[in-house]
Amino acid sequence: MAALKIEKGASSHSAYDLRDPNAQTIESHTLAVLVDNEAGVLARVIGLFSGRGFNIDSLTVAEVDHLGHRSRITIVTRGTPAVIEQIKAQLGRIIPVHEVHDLTVEGPSVERELGLYKVSGKGEKRVEALRIAEIFRANVVDSTLESFVFEITGTPEKLDAFADLMRPLGLSDLARTGVVALSRGA
Asked: Does the keyword Transferase apply (predicted)?
């Protein structure tokens, strides 16, 4: 079995490079899965991941076709190219699964996530939190004399950066939806 490394495209011809030349990179992929909206389907999809030791970084599910009773599951996972292909093949074999799309390789896509952040603080920290929220185009959806709840939409990286800046200002709680994604174009 080949060793794994996290860096991308690390090929070197130096005699001092001790990395395994057969190592494969770990990649993050966003999968969009169209399924029947019925009891047990999500459990079967999750069971596929847990039963084989694959991790899910993000998971969102919602009904997208009320008349056809179909739901869309968006999964962000990581693995070597071979592992990602195995995941897609096994997802495709689950009976209520109609389509499996790897948005990471099928072309340009749009990914967004929603986050709610509670920031507690007074005085200058409160003013700074509002200033940063404005820069990130976050909306204040709740306010008390001692805290704000901000709503922000964007890429996972944008939400991570917002949280990093709010921590020293009194970030006390947060909730995130997970990634939703669509391919761009026709």
From this structure: yes
